[in-house]
Amino acid sequence: MGKVTIDGQTLDFDGTPKLLQFMLDAGLELPHFCYHPALSIPANCRQCLVRTGMPALDRETRQPVVGDDGQPVIAFGPKLATSCSVDMADGMVVETHRTSSLVAEAQAGNLEFLLINHPLDCPICDQAGQCPLQIQAYKYGPEGSRFEFRKVHKPKRVPLGPRVMLDAERCINCTRCVRFTDEVSKSGQLTIINRGVKNYPMTPPDTTFDDPYGMNVIDLCPVGALTSTPYRFKARAWEVAMVPSITTVNAKGSNCFYWVRDNLVLNVVARTNAQANGYWLADEDRLGVERFNENRASSPQLRTDGELVETTWDAAYDAAAALLRDAGSNAAFLGSAHAPVEDNAMLIRLAESVGGTVLGYLPHVEPGHGDGWLRTDDRTPNAKGCEALGLRPVSSLDLGGASVLVVLEDDPVATGAVSADALADVRVILLPTHTTNQTLASASIVLPTTTVVETVGTYVNEDGLAQRVTPAKAIRGVNRTLMMAMGSSRTDQHGTPFDRWHHTSHKVDCRPGWEIFPDLGARLGHTGFGHTGPKAMMAELAADGGPFAGASYEAMGSGGFLVTSLAPAADAPSAIAPLSAQTSDAPAKATRTGWYEVFIAANGEHAFVLKAANGQVILDSETYTSRAGCDNGIASVQKNSVLPERYERFVSKGGKPMFNLHAGNHQVIGTSEEYESEAARENGIASVTRNGPTTTIKDQT
Fold first, then answer.
1. I want to staple 455 with a disulfide (CB 3.0 to 4.6 A). Which of 56, 133, 512, 576 is the partner?
2. Which strands make up the sheet holding 226-228, listed edge to edge?
3. What is the pLDDT of residues 474-490, one digit of tens each?
4. SS3 category, 9
């Protein structure tokens, strides 16, 4: 373990981390623009400058030189160094802008350089209020401008593609966007053109920036040079509430922030989670926010004289309870992979209380849509959660002699699972989220339910990661659980009809399934719904020793809880990074060493060390994704599909470790902080050994 002294404070460190990242992890602020932990380090913005040195050694005795004050003499480098590229060493002494006037002057001068040709667009820029350049210019920059010449003008409002707009005048050439397309998405659709003060990012000739992950460059851009075409000029940063949640257009459960103003979702941006999506978000997760605001099913309805007519919740509950009471065992229930675990659990409990049949849930699989990274063939967010509750996918509904069908948050008519004619003699109690639901035409009772942005609940992604969501939007009904989960900081939560910025029409009259089903059960006289909310429901599921054991809301926190029993089967086919080379059969043994899993091949040549904690494999979020934990703590670990042709794949099969390893250029690719390549061989397979002491993956949400 090494020691470093930063501004007089001595800290311990392991291995050889980069200085900037170490300081950020330690909570020491240091300005920077071009650095990003998931990208290469060009050190071109020159903003993270520091003064570094080592204790001076006597040339003859090789002992530290001590000054008159009794302290070691520090031999500082002749020039300031970019901390993002500096490897830390034992005994290093670092001075930042806090203690060195030289560093502070250099940072201020550098900011003055960056601002020379930067336009005064702050009043109209979408980035204003959340702009690192704006913030750092205020905190570290000069008091004013000395520039008296005409600024260099560059192209403005250039559509790079259908989703990203460029304002080249604002660009400071940090190259984050170019590095992302080169190193992460591998599309290569951005490059830097021209030279000197006239250069800026642009697409190559005859190229459209339509990368399915291209909108990540908007999050990466430290200024307002790259903005979202759908979101431009919709709201200012200080006007929106940024609510942490997950996306639901696929089974990855990518973490995000929903930006909400006046109870409307206006934008979706990435939220870091090492176990789910790393730093990134697919464009499909960001687009289509209109689904949260438009065509929403609002207010309960009863079919009267062939028409659906709005009614009160009490009247709708009474009518639905009467149908279920009369149907008894002839009632059928359909769960939903779009709905939270708690809603499905309550539906199952209601079905059991009336003696009805639970049909399962409808799968929404689009073969070929997944790319092995953050897009999946499964277009639902909670299929794993449904299966954990005992629900099974059904492609068609066998209603048998059912006289009542309860449908939770799905559309069996639109999916082709059942025809409208087949529902002619069945009384349908539908819990829809949108008026575009084609099963509405066959519904007798409509009980509108919440979407992911309006509820509290749990979703389980394809990797078995259970994640809790909280409401970003308010609904019209008063619910203490939702109100407490939303918090009191929302400005639009306290609006009145007299406030011009507040519109009560933006609140939908709907209720979560975990409230609707207990209310129906109470009207039927059943006592099995003694819950105060979804948290109690999940606590009960966690306590019964089933698949959700340990998955409490506290355990989930903001990053989720990996439910090992819900992870994919170890020998299940994977959509991630096909392999072109495989080793032979299972290695001879797998042993546990402390918190590490040591895998040794039968021939003794290929040894792999994977960091595991509590039976869960933990690896760098940008490099690997954890899958299929087994009883022995070994998990299937696959490359996260950025450079799929050069990634390794480790698979546990049948309880015994088997390794399929593919490395490009006969070299194993790993992370510099955790692994090193050893003894590359002709077949491209190499030993991978631990490089340095233990490091911990921190929750960066």
1. 512
2. 158-159, 164-166, 226-228
3. 999 878 888 888 765 56
4. strand
The tokens describing 243, both together, are: 């609510």
pLDDT band at 400 (very low <50, low <70, confident <90, very high): confident
Where b means 16+ CB within 10 Å and e means fewer, 325-362 reads eebeebbbbbbbbbbbbbbbbbbbbbbebbebbbbbbb
Question: Which residues, in sequence order, are CB contacts of 57 under 8 Å at separation 6+?
Answer: 63, 64, 65
- What integer pLDDT is reported at residue 47 of this predicted model? 95
User: Can you give the pTM of this predicted structure?
Assistant: 0.79
Residue 169 near residue 42, CB atoms below 8 Å: no
Q: How far apart are CA 95 and CA 460, in angstroms?
A: 46
Q: Tokens 């550098």 — which residue?
A: 110
Q: Which two tokens stand for residue 567?
A: 């992870």
Both tokens of residue 591?
Answer: 């042993």
What backbone torsions phi and psi does residue 539 show, to the nearest 5 degrees? -60, -35
More confident residue, 594 or 613: 613
Backbone φ and ψ of 386, nearest 5°: -65, -45
Residue 119: closest CA among 238, 219, 224, 236: 224
Scanning 83-175, the segments in alpha helix (DSSP H) are 101-116, 132-140
Q: Residue holding tokens 């409230």?
A: 515
Q: Which residues contact 549 (CB under 8 A, 6 or more apart)?
A: 542, 543, 565
Summarize the confidence of residues 87-100 as an average pLDDT: 95
Q: Which two tokens stand for residue 700?
A: 């960066």
Q: 15 is written with which tokens? A: 């291995």
CA–CA distances in Å: residue 332 to residues 308, 353, 451, 619, 634? 22, 12, 23, 44, 40
Q: What pLDDT, on a 0 to 100 scale, did the predictor assign at position 266?
A: 95
Q: Using CA atoms, how far apart are residues 519 and 321, in angstroms rounded to an integer? A: 9
Q: Is 238 helix (H, G, I), strand (E, B) or coil?
A: helix
Strands 158-159 and 561-562 turn out to be unpaired
C-alpha separations of 495 from 23, 472, 485, 501, 520 in Å: 42, 16, 18, 8, 32
The DSSP result for 249-296, as a single string, is SSTT--EEEEEEETTEEEEEEE--BTTTTBT---HHHHS-GGGGTSSB
Report the DSSP beta bridge partners of residue 201. 192
pLDDT in tens, 181-240: 999 999 999 999 999 889 999 999 999 999 999 999 999 999 999 999 999 999 999 889
Query: In a 3-state reduction of DSSP, which class is residue 352?
Result: helix
The model's pLDDT over 240-292, given as tens digits with 9 standing for 90+, comes to: 999 999 999 999 999 999 999 999 999 999 999 999 999 999 999 999 999 99
For residues 270 and 256, is the Cβ–Cβ distance under 8 A? Answer: yes
Radius of gyration (Cα) for the chain, nearest Å?
A: 29
Q: What is the share, in percent, of the chain residues with pLDDT greater than 90?
A: 67
For residues 405 and 394, what is the distance between their CA atoms, to the nearest angstrom?
A: 15
